[in-house]
Design a protein that fits this description.
The protein has eleven helices and no strands. It is mainly alpha-helical.
Length: 247
């Protein structure tokens, strides 16, 4: 890679980390479509894994409530694993633009609907029934697209968690998924040593971006947090659709 490409990668890392610091999510979902303008998705996805993992750990360390998230949502985390196996297998056999377009449409339509509707709060029975399907589907979508937020994000939003519990719960999912993806990408030969070197150095701009974004999140009123997250998804979804058509 030339110097311009490497600098562009680091700027993508910083921008995605800054937004993740504010909302608690979206590093891969923002970073991948940005990098897809100058990199092949099969290079971009493994390149993002290490910075994504570091961004998750940084957010988790600043948020707290780790034990609560693990004890309440462990079935989701366990059921994500078989979904990831299937998703990574499919990744090698489909066109990247197709997966980006599908994910973008899902994010955009969900965010548009959620912004125009009242918050849905799931009953305890529905939460129990949906836990495993949500984890499995999240794993499949993650493996195919590199994005870790659907459908676990709307599921957690529907539980009416406070923003710190929400951020910790979803980032624990991101962290476990990233570790599994790191292993699986290595197994299928997409994780190259040269990419790992760039990814490790990229942890620095990620740390700076997370720190700045987290400071803003702490000043964000609880009642505004959901709206900010949904607006963020709306923009990301539209961006994915446009890039899948243009690129």
């Amino acid at each position: 890679m030339n110097l311009q490409t490497v600098v562009s990668i680091f700027l993508s890392f910083f921008f995605a980390a800054f937004l993740k610091g504010i909302t608690g999510l979206g590093f891969s979902t923002i970073c991948l479509p940005t990098m897809a303008t100058f990199l092949n998705p099969k290079i971009a996805i493994p390149l993002v894994i290490v910075p994504s993992l570091s961004s998750n750990l940084l957010v988790m360390a600043q948020t707290g409530k780790f034990q609560d998230a693990l004890s309440n949502f462990w079935p989701i985390y366990v059921s994500t694993f078989p979904g990831l196996l299937l998703g990574v297998y499919v990744l090698n056999s489909i066109e990247g633009a197709i997966s980006r377009a599908i994910l973008g449409a899902i994010l955009f339509l969900y965010a548009l609907w959620a912004l125009r509707s009242k918050s849905i709060i799931l009953s305890e029975k529905m939460r129990t029934w949906l836990t495993v399907p949500v984890g499995l589907t999240t794993g499949v979508i993650n493996g195919i697209t590199g994005s870790q937020i659907m459908p676990i994000l709307p599921f957690l939003l529907a539980l009416n968690l406070n923003k710190e519990t929400f951020v910790q719960a979803i980032n624990l999912s991101f962290t476990l998924s990233s570790m599994i993806m790191l292993f699986l990408l290595g197994k299928i030969g997409l994780l190259q040593p040269s990419l790992l070197g760039i990814a490790v150095v990229g942890i620095l701009p990620v740390a700076i971006g997370i720190n700045l974004g987290s400071r803003l999140r702490k000043r964000l009123p609880e009642e505004k947090f959901r709206t900010v997250v949904l607006l963020f998804l709306l923009v990301v979804g539209l961006s994915l659709i446009v890039r899948s058509v243009v690129i």
